[in-house]
Design goal:
Elements: E1 2-4, H1 7-19, E2 24-29, H2 35-47, E3 50-55, H3 75-85, E4 89-91, H4 95-98, H5 119-122, H6 126-141, E5 145-149, H7 153-165, E6 171-175, H8 195-200, H9 203-216, H10 221-234, E7 238-246, E8 259-268, E9 271-280
Helix pairs in contact: 6-7, 9-10
Length: 287
C-alpha cells in the first residue's frame, strides 16, 4: 500500500490508474479505524479495482467545545490495518493541504433543510463541514464508487443528496452498521467510555429496538419517542433526540408511510453516541 500526503502525488497516481481503465473506490474516514471501517474497505475492494482510503480529522465538522483536539489520531496503526486488508492507497493530508486558505474563509458546501435537523440541530454547522470535506475528496479522487456506513444515516442521505444536486457521477454505497457482540454500534468515540459506561452503552440499541417493535405494533411514533427518551434518561444517558422518520428523506412520517427509521443521539459520559434502526410499519387495512 502506498501512503500519500500531498495532492499532486495523489492526482498523479490516480491518473495512471484511470489511464489503465481501472475502477476506483473511495472510503473517507477520520482514522482510529475499527472493524466497521475495515468492512467499508472490504466492500470497496469487492466493487472496484483500486481503493483509496483517506484519513483526515476534518476540523470543519467540529463545533466549539467539541473533541477536535482530543479526537484519537492513530495513523500508523490505521495504515497497518488498511495494508493488511488489501487497500492500495492511503491519502492522509495535513489540514493546510485541505484548507490552504484557512478554515474561516474556505468555500463551503451545504445541503439545505435536512442539514439543520436531528444531529444538525444538536451540532450546528456539523453537516456543512461534512459535505464540504466530502465534496473536496470527491473532486480530488473522482471515484467511481464511494462507501459509507449506515450508522451515520443522516450523513449518508446528505451525501447522496449532495452528489445528486451537484451532478457527481459516483455510485454511493451504504453499508449496514457493524456492531459489537452486545449490539453497540462500532465507533471511534466508544473509546471515550469508561468501563461502567461501556457496560451501559448497549442500552441505546436496545431502546431503538423497543421503539421499532412498538411502532410496528401500532404505537404512535410520538409516544414511542417519549418512552424511549425516558428509558435512556433512566439508564443514565442524556438524549439529544429520539426520532422516527421516513427512510427515504428523513421527513416526519405520515399515516401512509411504512418504510421508517428510528434515529437517536445521546450523551453517555464524554461520548456522544448515535445509532439507528430501520423498521417497516404495517399500513392500516382499507375498508
Amino acid at each position: 500500500m502506498e501512503t500519500l500526503h500531498d495532492i499532486p502525488a495523489l492526482r498523479s497516481r490516480l491518473a495512471g490508474w484511470r489511464a489503465a481503465g481501472l475502477r476506483i473506490a473511495l472510503v473517507p474516514t477520520m482514522g482510529n479505524l475499527h472493524e466497521g471501517h475495515i468492512a467499508l474497505v472490504q466492500t470497496a475492494l469487492a466493487g472496484a479495482d483500486r481503493v483509496v482510503a483517506t484519513v483526515f480529522v476534518n476540523p470543519l465538522q467540529f463545533g466549539p467545545g467539541e473533541d477536535l483536539d482530543s479526537y484519537p489520531r492513530t495513523l500508523a496503526e490505521d495504515a497497518r490495518q488498511l495494508q493488511a486488508v488489501g487497500c492500495q492507497l492511503l491519502f492522509a493530508p495535513a489540514e493546510a493541504t485541505m484548507y490552504p486558505q484557512g478554515r474561516a474563509g474556505h468555500t463551503q458546501v451545504e445541503v439545505p433543510g435536512l442539514s439543520a435537523e436531528l444531529c444538525g440541530a444538536s451540532r450546528p454547522g456539523h453537516f456543512r463541514g461534512v459535505t464540504t470535506v466530502v465534496a473536496k475528496l470527491f473532486n480530488l479522487v473522482q471515484p467511481d464508487l464511494a462507501v459509507f456506513g449506515q450508522k451515520d444515516y443522516q450523513q449518508l442521505l446528505l451525501i447522496r443528496r449532495m452528489a445528486l444536486d451537484l451532478n457527481m457521477d459516483i455510485e454511493i454505497v451504504g453499508l449496514p452498521t457493524v456492531r459489537e457482540a452486545d449490539g453497540l454500534a462500532m465507533s471511534s468515540r466508544n473509546a471515550y467510555l469508561t468501563a461502567a459506561e461501556r457496560a451501559r452503552a448497549p442500552v441505546l440499541f436496545r431502546t431503538l429496538t423497543a421503539v421499532a417493535a412498538a411502532v410496528a405494533a401500532g404505537t404512535s411514533p410520538e409516544q414511542a419517542e417519549r418512552d424511549a427518551a425516558q428509558a435512556l434518561r433512566t439508564a443514565g444517558f442524556e438524549p439529544d433526540y429520539v426520532s422516527v422518520r421516513r427512510r427515504v428523506d428523513l421527513a416526519l412520517p405520515g399515516p401512509a408511510d411504512s418504510a421508517l427509521v428510528v434515529l437517536a443521539a445521546a450523551h453517555l459520559g464524554r461520548a456522544r453516541l448515535i445509532d439507528n434502526l430501520e423498521l417497516d410499519r404495517p399500513l392500516p387495512v382499507q375498508g
